[in-house]
Specification:
Elements: E1 2-7, H1 15-23, E2 28-31, E3 40-44, E4 47-51, E5 64-67, E6 72-73, H2 75-87, E7 94-98, E8 102-103, H3 106-119, H4 131-139, H5 146-149, H6 153-173, H7 182-196, E9 200-201, H8 203-212, E10 217-224, H9 244-251, E11 258-266, E12 269-271, H10 283-292, E13 308-310, E14 312-313, H11 314-324, E15 328-332, E16 342-351, E17 354-356, H12 362-365, E18 369-376, H13 393-406, E19 410-414, E20 422-424
Parallel strand pairs: 1-10, 1-11, 2-5, 2-10, 5-7, 6-8, 7-9, 11-15, 14-16, 15-19
Antiparallel strand pairs: 3-4, 12-13, 16-17, 16-18, 19-20
The structure holds guanosine-5'-diphosphate (GDP).
């Protein structure tokens, strides 16, 4: 059975924790999009980890972790991440890398950095991991596929020269940087070939076989619905699809094999980077929620920069779940809200004298003001509670209210960052 674990919001919903937990009963875990630009924080028996490129299933002996063709593959980063795990006592994970994955090159990072600097105050808030330049090149058909490293060297060199010709026009004239040297780019590719060789695999054939054998397969998404380039808050989005549907493409499996779409929803809102954020909090309220959020504050796992925080946004989350095709929801970081007397939920967007309950396009979104419904807080720590019935009444009301608003069943409630801090729930 194939199950996707994806985010309904702006990312950082806690997908890593849910994937790590569900991986216990899975055989294969696949990253199908994105790259090393977003981090999944995982706290388990081995310690605390921020994974960027590896799937969150790497902590078990029995799992195979796969980098799918849809991923922006930073090869030295992958090797370093594997070495870091092993150095912290995690058994060497079984990793496969799709022969159709494309390679994130050092010049992608350079272009990302130069462009963010050029945009200055109007930048996208990129993590400068090279993701946008990488996907631009992929679709412009000037990217390097892993398989090409193992093909004809002369053909590869011809392609390298062509890429350098194109890149150097912008590097020299727009960004005033030294040009790329084809021989150096070629040498980098040869180094990458050595590094990636042990992991290369025809992943779609491997998965075809695994599906036939009835293996349990997880697709792990990065970021969330609202960062999807088509359905998110364009242009303040990421450069690859964050939706479960893309899991089929980015892993190389039939779409109808994805039987379960577990969407991770955060009990309040957080976002990194620029873009409209209707239920955003500011001032002291924001500082308090940020410092109490997640497992030690809402600060980016990749960059360490403070995340923007806000009240739970039912309009955005309902849309985020719909666009994912959610079959069930894991509601996370609920324990963080235990300090509040009163908790607001954004149930509508006011714009031009009307109240919207459907998530609008970006140009409208930017003018929206939140309409809040207030609920009483539960004023206690719910960490350690294992049964849904044992949660305080006001906490259960908050969960039921969210479920009613988003219209999809909440089957799991996460009340702490650790692997087993999870409460199973029967949808009501
Ligand atoms: P991801 O990118 O969706 O995997 O999410 P991140 O790892 O970026 O952010 C989620 C943060 O919340 C991490 O620091 C997690 O350790 C933490 N976290 C996940 N679930 C819970 C929870 O239920 N309670 C608390 N307090 N923290 C959680």
């Amino acid at each position: 059975m194939v199950r996707a674990i994806v985010g309904a919001n702006w990312g950082d919903e806690g997908k890593g924790k849910i994937t790590d937990m569900l991986a216990e009963k899975s055989d294969i875990i696949i990253r199908f999009q994105g790259g090393s630009n977003a981090g999944h924080t995982i706290i388990n028996d081995y310690g605390k980890f921020a994974l960027h490129l590896l799937p969150s299933g790497v902590f078990y002996d029995h799992t195979t972790s796969i980098i799918g063709n849809g991923v922006a593959l930073n090869i030295p980063y992958l090797v370093k991440e594997i070495q870091d795990l092993v150095s912290k006592g995690v058994p060497e994970p079984k990793i496969l890398v799709s022969d159709r994955a494309q390679i994130l090159m050092p010049y992608h990072i350079l272009f990302d950095t130069c462009e963010e600097a050029r945009l200055a105050g109007k930048s996208f808030g990129s993590t400068k991991s090279g993701i946008a330049p990488f996907y631009s090149d992929k679709y412009a058909k000037i990217g390097f596929q892993v398989s090409e490293l193992f093909g004809d060297a002369d053909e590869l060199m011809d392609k390298v020269k062509n890429v350098c010709t194109l890149k150097n026009v912008m590097l020299e004239n727009l960004y005033h940087q030294p040009p790329l040297v084809p021989e150096e780019v070629f040498a980098t590719l040869q180094e990458y070939k050595e590094m990636v060789a042990p992991y290369v695999c025809d992943v779609s054939a491997y998965l075809h076989q695994a599906i036939q054998e009835g293996k349990n397969i997880l697709l792990e998404g990065q970021l969330g619905s609202l960062k999807d380039p088509d359905h998110g808050i364009y242009p303040m989005v990421t450069s690859s699809s964050t939706l479960a549907a893309y899991g089929a493409i980015g892993a190389g499996i039939p779409p109808y094999e994805i039987k379960n779409i577990t969407t991770v929803v955060k009990a309040y809102s957080s976002a990194v980077g620029a873009g409209a954020f209707v239920s955003e909090l500011f001032g002291d309220e924001a500082v308090e929620l940020r410092n109490r959020g997640g497992d030690g504050g809402e600060y980016g796992a990749t960059t360490g920069r403070p995340r923007r925080v806000g009240w739970f946004d039912a309009v955005a989350t309902r849309y985020g779940c719909r666009i994912q095709g959610t079959t069930e929801v894991a509601l996370t970081v609920l324990d963080v809200l235990g300090y509040l007397d009163e908790i607001s939920i954004c149930v509508g967007y006011e714009v031009d004298g009307k109240v919207l309950t459907d998530f609008p396009v970006t140009s409208v979104l930017e003018r929206c003001k939140p309409v809040y419904k207030k609920l009483p807080g539960w004023k206690c720590d719910i960490r350690g509670i294992q049964k849904y019935e044992d949660l305080p009444e006001n906490c259960k009301n908050y969960i039921c209210e969210i479920e009613k608003e988003i219209g999809v069943p909440i089957t799991m409630v996460s009340n702490g960052p650790k692997r087993h801090e999870i409460i199973e729930r029967k949808p009501q």
